[in-house]
TrEMBL record:
This is Stage V sporulation protein B. The keyword Ligase does not apply. It is found in: Cell membrane. It is a multi-pass membrane protein. It comes from Ezakiella coagulans. It comes from the Bacteria.
Length: 520
């Protein structure tokens, strides 16, 4: 591979990575103004509809774009340009059909599904997601095609368009429908996803029209090895199924979790509205904040796949062990301060972001956040080590590990949420235990299949993080008496970050070589 080609791959990865981070940040901050509009009860309605939608989305969009990209890039390498174009057409129309079919099923079964989940107030939110189910699969097919052509900019722009539109229109409709009640307003927030997906499809169709001639008709086409449509479809499905199964596990677990939490809280003596309110604290507010550090874990994991895959293929075992150990260490350097920061400043952070929800919601969400913060290192390690295991062709292992962790989650949530003194906090405890077990299993298999060396300096980061969290809390406590809580929180976060980074460099826990590893 030429130097220019390598540069192109690095540029493409940076483009997609930046777009992914922007999209994640949009998704995380989306909940803040929405919570101010519909409070924790409305967030509960909004959040309850998403796991079913995400399962369908995983089935239809997780594996097929990867399959499209794989086949298109392979056929272009063989100069079979006609096959690459046929792959796009087959995938586009198949995914359009699949999206329409799943949308129809969602429309038919929306009422039974929300009743099954124990939250009938989320009915409008689920109905509002039907248009997104229609447009998201064909959009994913187009993204997969352009990724196969190594034209990543269009894909990145479409992701930002979809998420930006979703946030803007969702918030507008949420506000517009407030006079009609929280259920309708939550449905308006959900409707933004469909509008965003529609505009994403329109954008990609314009891109395709503009580039169609230069990426297809102007190229010499090898007509000797033309694949038929049935053969292309069979190959797409064959590649996509394992990836889709893996992607569907977490949404399935989330769906089970909704039912268990709602039913458990009702058995604990809470009314339906009280149960939904507490569910909103858990899923709509606290869990959203836990997803922010996860963005870094996902980015690190995705960036590691080509590096690990190359070293594994070339059998450079020593370099592979060094690289895998380094990325796990760097992950923990980031994860531990995030954990201690969220733990020690949980109430000030919730007050800063969701101050309009009331004292009970702030206190309840802060307690949940303190518990969930303990899962941050495990969650980030799962993201990184899942990618590593996939890169060494052990993609089934992280799926099995997720299922094992999910079983513990189901058992703990079922048992604990029914206890009035534990209630919704039991679901958070189940999440921490589940992710911890999954992360430990992933680490075990990475060590077994590749090798893993964790330096003693990793434990220095734990001590540094704990010290940072304690100092940040004391700074907040001191300033809160003189300034507003929000200003005190922001200052405490900045002071904590400066202290943590300073300790790492003074103790040489992080070196120049570690920074080079991150760049690489």
């Amino acid at each position: 591979m030429s130097k220019n080609k390598k540069s192109s791959i690095g540029k493409n990865a940076a483009i997609l990575g930046l777009a992914g981070i922007i999209v994640k940040i949009f998704g995380a901050i989306y909940r803040i103004p929405m919570t101010a509009l519909i409070k924790d009860v409305g967030i509960g309605y909004f959040q309850s509809a998403y796991p079913i939608y995400e399962i369908m989305l995983a089935i239809s969009t997780a594996g097929l774009p990867v399959a499209v990209s794989t086949i298109v890039s392979r056929e272009i390498a063989k100069e079979n340009y006609l096959n690459s174009k046929k792959t796009f057409k087959v995938a586009f129309w198949f995914m359009a059909f699949l999206g329409t079919l799943l949308a129809l099923l969602l429309w038919i079964f929306a009422k039974p599904l929300v009743n099954f989940l124990g939250n009938p107030g989320s009915y409008y939110s689920m109905l509002a997601l039907i248009p997104a189910m229609v447009f998201s699969p064909p959009l994913a097919a187009m993204r997969g095609y352009y990724q196969g052509l190594e034209l990543m900019t269009s894909t990145a722009i479409s992701q930002i368009i979809v998420q930006g539109t979703r946030v803007a229109t969702g918030l507008y409709l949420c506000y517009l429908l407030i006079p009609y009640g929280l259920e309708a307003s939550a449905g308006g927030a959900s409707a933004g996803a469909g509008i965003g997906a529609f505009l994403g499809v329109m954008f990609m169709l314009l891109v395709h029209k503009k580039h169609k001639r230069e990426i297809g008709d102007s190229l010499n086409t090898n007509k000797d090895n033309v694949m038929n449509s049935k053969g292309i479809l069979n190959e797409l499905i064959k590649i996509a199924i394992p990836i889709s199964i893996g992607a569907a596990i977490l949404p399935i677990m989330d769906t089970i979790d909704i039912r268990l939490v709602m039913k458990g809280l009702l058995k604990a003596g809470f009314s339906l509205e009280e149960a939904n309110l507490r569910f909103g604290w858990l899923k709509g507010m606290a869990q959203t904040l836990i997803s922010l550090p996860q963005v870094i874990g996902i980015a690190l994991g995705v960036s590691m796949i080509p590096v690990v895959s190359k070293l594994f293929t070339l059998k450079k075992d020593e370099q592979l062990v060094k690289k895998v150990s380094s990325i796990n260490r760097i992950t923990l350097f980031i994860a531990f301060p995030a954990m201690f920061g969220l733990f020690s400043l949980s109430e000030p952070i919730i007050r800063l972001l969701y101050g309009s929800t009331g004292a009970e919601a702030i206190e309840g969400t802060a307690r949940i956040l303190r518990i969930l913060s303990l899962s941050v290192p495990a969650l980030m390690l799962i993201n990184v080590n899942t990618s590593i295991l996939q890169a060494v062709v052990k993609e089934k292992i992280p799926v099995i590990n997720l299922v094992i962790g999910g079983i513990f989650k189901i058992i703990l949530t079922y048992v604990l949420t029914q206890r009035p003194e534990v209630n919704v906090y039991g679901a958070a405890i189940g999440t921490v235990v589940s992710f911890t077990i999954t992360a430990l299993l992933d680490i075990y298999y990475v060590k077994k299949e590749i090798g893993l060396k964790m330096a003693y300096k990793t434990f220095i980061s734990v001590i540094s993080s704990a010290l940072m969290g304690g100092i940040a809390y004391m700074v907040w406590k001191a300033l809160n008496a003189r300034l507003s809580s929000n200003i005190a929180t922001l200052v405490a976060v900045m002071v904590g970050a400066i202290i943590y980074v300073s300790i790492l460099f003074v103790t040489k826990t992080v070196t120049k070589r570690d920074l080079e590893e991150i760049r690489e």
